[in-house]
């Protein structure tokens, strides 16, 4: 079972999670992160680090976010690994509480 980045990450892209990942399983897209399910070792360290609570165990992904399981797997094959923490986008805090951002995901 892998961990999954969900909709809350879109337009926020905080990278605190990247800093604690022992296996470098995060991949970086234009405005979101995903987790490579083939690399994730289920250590749970990233969950507590995410300030927008975007990361879930695969079995705990909310029902309205289940498509993010396949989306993480798909995009992890396309996006490059991110292994160091970066500054979030300047407007990340403004997007942190916004719901329904799925249509804003940039591939």
What does this protein look like?
With 107 residues, the chain is of the alpha+beta class. The protein has one domain: Alpha-Beta Plaits (2-Layer Sandwich), CATH 3.30.70. Helix content is 22%, strand content 13%. The chain has four helices and five strands. The protein has helices at residues 16-20, 45-49, 67-76, 92-95; strands at residues 3-5, 26-28, 33-35, 55-57, 80-81. A three-stranded antiparallel beta sheet has the order 3-2-5, covered by helices on one side. Strands 1-4 form a two-stranded antiparallel sheet. The longest helix has 10 residues, at 67-76. It is globular. The termini are far apart.
What labels would you give this structure?
107 residues, alpha+beta, Alpha-Beta Plaits, 5 strands, 13% strand, globular
Question: What's this entry about, in short?
Answer:
With 107 residues, this protein is α+β, with helices and mostly antiparallel strands. Helices cover 22% and strands 13% of the residues.
Spell out the helices and strands N to C: EHEEHEHEH
Please tell me how large the radius of gyration is. Answer: 12 Å
CATH class: Alpha Beta
Uncertain runs with pLDDT below 50, 5 residues or more? none
Fraction of residues in helix: 10-25%
Count of domains? 1
Q: Total strand count, please? A: 5
Query: Biggest sheet, open or closed, and with what strands and sense?
Result: 3 strands, antiparallel
Shape type: globular
CATH topology: Alpha-Beta Plaits
Would you tell me the overall average pLDDT?
97
**CATH architecture tag:** 2-Layer Sandwich
């Amino acid at each position: 079972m892998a961990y999954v980045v969900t909709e809350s990450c879109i337009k926020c892209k905080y990278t605190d999670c990247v800093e604690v990942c022992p296996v470098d399983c995060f991949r970086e897209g234009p405005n979101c992160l995903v987790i490579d399910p083939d690399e994730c070792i289920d250590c749970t360290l990233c969950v507590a680090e995410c300030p927008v609570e975007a990361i879930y165990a695969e079995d705990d992904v909310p029902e309205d976010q289940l498509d993010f399981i396949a989306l993480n797997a798909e995009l992890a094959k396309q996006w490059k690994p991110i292994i160091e923490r970066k500054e979030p986008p300047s407007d990340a805090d403004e997007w942190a509480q916004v719901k329904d951002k799925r249509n804003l995901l940039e591939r």
